[in-house]
């Protein structure tokens, strides 16, 4: 029971914490509808497996881990800046949900190129995985990822519900603001890497 409570608490906290993936989930939900936002929110289920394995392998050598986090930060900053620029110059919203099959893959890339999951799984998350037997460690990881994803989606859905009351022009401004926030995260990642 302690493992589940820890996973729920950490998952909600991580889900509420602003970051590139959360902003992207909100953007996709507003622009393409709940289905696209839901797909993007579940990216950690695909990306965190390799992140967990990579973190455990790299944490044994802290010199390599520092270099790896710096490299991931720089690559992540460049990729997030690319996505942000693409979103800023995109055509105005028509307030009609469309399918965005690439939203899930883009969210996976954003999460893979964000150093935060690596740091989490090599510290707090990794501790829970190592201190428990395999079934409890699996429960922790699954409950954490599900809570994280659902929290991000609920936030995005709440913003979409509120946004449905506004004009297409206002939604277009909000979408551009979200893209600018992504650019801010890209800049912050780059500065932290340096």
Give the overall shape. globular
**Percent helix:** over 70%
Given as residue ranges, the uncertain stretches (5+ residues, pLDDT < 50) are none
- The count of DSSP E runs of length 2 or more, i.e. the number of strands, is 0
H and E string: HHHHHHHHHH
Q: Can you tell me the number of structural domains?
A: 1
User: Would you tell me the structural class of the helices and strands?
Assistant: mainly alpha
Query: How can the largest sheet be summarized?
Result: none
The CA-CA distance between the termini, in Å, is 41 Å
Q: Compute the CA-based radius of gyration.
A: 17 Å
Task: Label this structure with key terms.
globular, 10 helices, mainly alpha, 194 residues
